[in-house]
Amino acid sequence: MSERKRRVLIWASSPMNIVVLRPILDVLRHDRRISLFLTGKYHGEDNPLAIARETGLTGLHMVSLDQAKKLPADLFLTADRKRLGHGCKRKVLMFHGVSFKGRSITPKVKWFDRILLVGPYQRRKFAETGALREDDPRFELIGMPKLDRLARGEFDRDQIRAELGVPDGKPMVLYAPTWTEQSSLYHMGEPMLEELARMPEVHVVVKLHDHLYDMSRNSIDWAARLTSKPWDNVRLTRLGDIVPLMAAADILISDASSAANEFTLLDRPILFADAPELWRGERYGSTADLDTWGRKGGIVIERPADVRAAIRRSLENPAEFSAIRRQIAADLFAYPGESTGRAIAAIYREMGLEPPSAAELELARSPRLAGPPLNILHVASHGDITRGGAVQMLTMVRQLIRRGHRVSVVLNNAPENVGRFEPRLRELGAARVACFPMQADGVLKRLRIQRQFRKWYREGNYDVVHTHRQEALGFVLRALRGERVPALLTNRGTTYRFASAADRKAYHSPRLDRIIAVAHAVEAVLVREERIEPERVSVVYGGFDTEAYARPSGAALRAEFGIADETSLVGCIGAFHKKKGHGLLLEAFARVRRDLPQARLVLVGDGNRGPLEKKIERLGLGDAVIFAGFRRDIPDVLAALDLSVNTSTEGEGLTGALRESLAVGTPVVATDVSGNREIVIDGVTGRLVPVNDVDAAAMAIGWALRHPEAMRAMAAEGQRLVWNQCADTVQAERLEAIYHEILEAKRESQPTG
User: Fold this and answer.
1) Among 49, 131, 257, 550, which is most exposed with the fewest C-beta within 10 angstroms?
2) Which domains does the chain have, with CATH numbers?
3) What is the pTM of this model?
């Protein structure tokens, strides 16, 4: 029999915590013996998803703080001293940095069963302060895993600099202050950067601490303030991981941040921007240690005017403080380049498991898992293949076929109608195509159809049955009762509660191996409200056809409706259902037109347009609104827009029109409903507004049209996000991995001998 999965609960309060844990998490999340759960507060909200999203972390279950407190886990792991996992068998602490602020040196760490120390200095300080004895059995010296690649010199500096927009041969200066209002950024950051802006011979990259983006902690919006400056050689980066930035930098400017100490591993010049309030204030005044190493490894800048001379001095003599930097690094960091392996060994010991071998990890990480191609059956509740979820199913089918699998399709329609769909599905490469009416009238008729489907199914010898929506799931469970189904999955695309007791029974069926949620918002409803075991839910975002969305053109749509290139065109893609919020959009657009009378709105979709036409007339919008009807050229439609708007009010899993808009690089404004916030990050990848708030929607749309450059920059960030998370190739790869995981687990659970 296979071993039960170990549950590991991760706490993080910022992306920085994940950066520290990432080398370990990259092993844990590829180990099929382990289920990972992430919880945390970010910017004051119970929002682990935001942390995962900003770090690109996948393969974890997102749980709220309330859920985390009740989760029976085998291990609690954090880099933030958070005491949360009371129901966990073992608790392991790592450290997100090693600075001289000293806040981590506290007796509170006694709560943990294992404390993974960064280096000798840290162990010594615990003893000197009386927090813990130097030989405390909970201590284990492992170093800092996030710095291993830095210590081994594995980063391509030229590539990193090119991605940052500093490709030429000028020296790069990295400014990375800590986050409190006593930091160097508040003390003299802006005038110091003004001085650096007058040094065209260097590039300056500013990396703000995660917490500096949290306006509940800060009196100044530093990101907005710094990006508004007309500085040619100073740029702000939102890259969450500072380690590649350090690898690319020639000089670091910091204050009390751990980054200054981490940079000593490179033995490159460090400048310390003075921030006296850090050391005198209540927060660090009693814990700071400037006597041991402090700021001895570089030049201390006391005034902004001193920074240019300090930069030139460091460039002329980079080895000036080399000897002391090397001593600091040796005392602060144990096992540079080897820390990840030591941390993994310690964590697996706490779980009573052997770590996976390098070969096992390589196999788990590979895009294709070992084994022959699978024979997969997709069963859809849809009666055609032109809309919504059916298009999503076709996206899956096409890519799975391209990856070498044999895929068949069943649709919810009368058998005699199969000819309407078979040519298109055969063109994609489908092996078999059939139609069965899944909700036929009359018990006897339904039983006959189920028998027909069962006979058809037996002829296929399928490895995987993947259903779409509850009608298809219920039909398969009824029709294949008593049949062997090696792996049974279903897609769930909305955040609605289950509509009936029958649906609830189907989703809780022990015969159902996995529910594929199209967004973490859907996963949250399934786990928190419907009480589905989290291990039975996997998040795989809906995909888009990477070929169709690679090079779209918007010229045809504008020509079709006579819209000039200089006219601001706003669009909304979606059928005319009440939940899509078209009425709210029209009201918001009418307000936008007061200031931007040349703007036009195109509505793409079908349904009952009567109520919308009446509202258009009442609002005096007239010819400003175009009904474009149902379209098959959506990539080109989206490319024609200056702004794509979604004002849905409920039920969305993750709005496909937003995903597809960002895929072509079209700016977006969306309501904060269900999973929309998973790709529309307000101020980063688009604008997010409250649900049913006409004023907020109008303000966001108007702002977006008046600031096209800012919106295009956000759309570019969103485009990178969705191509990494939602491309059809990514979707198929993740589905394939889940199929194999289920089949392998079932094989291992079979009795042997």
Assistant:
1) 550
2) 6-144+338-360 (3.40.50.2000), 152-332 (3.40.50.12580), 375-543+735-749 (3.40.50.2000), 555-726 (3.40.50.2000)
3) 0.80
